[in-house]
Sequence to fold (576 residues):
Amino acid sequence: MKYVVVSGGVISGIGKGVLASSTGMLLKTLGLKTTSIKIDPYMNIDAGTMSPLEHGECFVLDDGGETDLDLGNYERYMNVTLTKDHNITTGKIYSHVISKERKGDYLGKTVQIVPHLTNAIQDWIERVARVPVDDTGEVPDVCIVELGGTVGDIESAPFVEALRQFQFRVGKENFCLVHVSLVPVIHGEQKTKPTQAAIKDLRSLGLNPDMIACRCAKELDQPTIEKIAMFCHVGPRQVVNVHDVETTYHVPLLLLSQKMIAYLSERLELEKLQLTSKDQHRGQHLLAKWKNMTDTFGHSDHSVKIALVGKYTNLRDSYLSVIKALEHSSMKCRTKLEILWVEATDLEFESQNTDKTKFHEAWKNVSDADGILVPGGFGSRGTEGMILAAKWARESNVPYLGICLGLQVATIEFARNVLGIKDGNSAEFHPELPEGKQVVVYMPEIDKENMGGTMRLGLRPTYFQKDTEWATIRKVYGNSQSVEERHRHRYEINPTLLQRFEEKGLHFVGRDESGSRCEIFELKDHPYYVATQYHPEYTSKVLGPSRPFLGFIAASAGVLDPLLEGKYEYQGTADF
Fold:
């Protein structure tokens, strides 16, 4: 097993996740099987109870693991299916060690950071790195390990020490460290001192970088590269220039052009790994598809404006998977994407809105949009604005995609304005509502006391109902009998109201195995009015877009019929 560790210095949020994902994707172009592990040095067990405004979105895996958003990047770029164990947190590690201590596994010894905690980290990495993550079912060849946070922070100290020891456990030829650093531009001059200081700190902790990935707004000057190489004790070819590019999808090709993979192959002796001609062909085909995708980016046949009506728009990483799914679908449809960010509270009634300018700007964005998307979320804030956006899309024949909460608010809107349930709402927002007015109800099996890991989580099946061959969403899914998608919710549409909805044209075309729990609805006689209780954005891939998003973008761009006719042939991910 080969390990590529990606660490970061100077500042957080420097782009380690994109670099780690891009490195894994490029190693796949050689025909290698890759996997990835993210280390998050926070005390939480997982990201499930963290506010999106605190840490960005919570990404959900097939097994129901609620993890850091970087695991979404790994899955999208590398086309792998990870598990909750691929996300290591301080909380998980301490809980694991304390559990062993309580069982007496340490035979009475004093339990310490070194060696007990650091050994537990190393054991965890080695165990999880060997878990198959793709359709071959084979053990990966290379594991990308991203160390979250910034080297030097007190929180990451045990993990840094564990990785220092780990390089000797696995051997030099199996361990490579890529350190991501910042090169700021001050008054037009590229400054190397922050990188020099970061590498000095790294070395003082016992880790020597094999490559330094320098993040900079502009392309690095050759003298800057040579200066970093000289003062950081590496060769110039080991300094990678990661300057700003058109999109993050161009980063792998930027790294490839600087022969990063050639260096890693040499450093890790990858030529000794036995690869079949089929593996090599798959890798070459992946690279060709990726190059084709990036070459056509910006040379679009159409343009489309999507109003994203959310409640966490101040931190757009809260909707990272949604954004990426929109991008994947727009690239597939050769459509230039423009996202119009709309804070849901700004849409609420003018008489209650303290900022009239924001109110009118928000409604201008909604009315100008070719499609309206309402994503997931929790709590009552902004939901009346979301309901108004859903009403606009329904009445104006504007394509609509609702996800989780987006399905629930659209159903509430329909109940109020079509079924005549004037005070209809969700039990989440108004628990005191009489049962007849509860359009959305608490799922009976959900734990109401504990918040962490207690929702309906992970991959679950959805079955298309009888006589739903007409449904556009079913056609977009390739006329499947059923689909499997990832869930994250505590509330559902009131099963007692489903028949009344369908009599008025809102059809719950996809349901769970019981036939009573709503998974997908579609409004008949509308260009595209679709919502899902699950989160289709979690399974969208760069070269294999999410089907509901693909249909939504195609409908919004006016190319849905050509898409369904095969003009934009959906190639899936079988050959990735």
Residues 2 and 218 are 32 Å apart (CA to CA).
